[in-house]
Amino acid sequence: MSQSRWRALLRVCEPDLQILVIDGEGDRLKARLPLHSEHPRALMTVLEGLAMWQGQRLGAVQYVDARGPDYIDWAFPNADLRGHRSPLVDFSTRVHGGARRRIRGVGDFRQLRLLGGDV
To answer: For the whole prediction, is pTM greater than 0.85?
Structure first.
């Protein structure tokens, strides 16, 4: 069993919430859940369960589109995921899709951007 720390990557892809759990070896878990939950702590409970499964804190990152609404508040209005301090989950938000300055020409650098995390 790998000792590398798991990370949960979350993305809203209407009508679903996608969750990908990865570690140093690759994918550990993939899930597609309904975007709206019947309980305000459902998402945090899932993430805390994953942390308990691996026996250490889970880093969870929600990726949001720079041009879209703040999905974590819209999809989970009662969840208070940013304000909730779990001893088991480090929750953060990262914005992607914003306009970045790119140099035109000189070839195709898409693969290098993917490797560097700049999608």
So the answer is: no
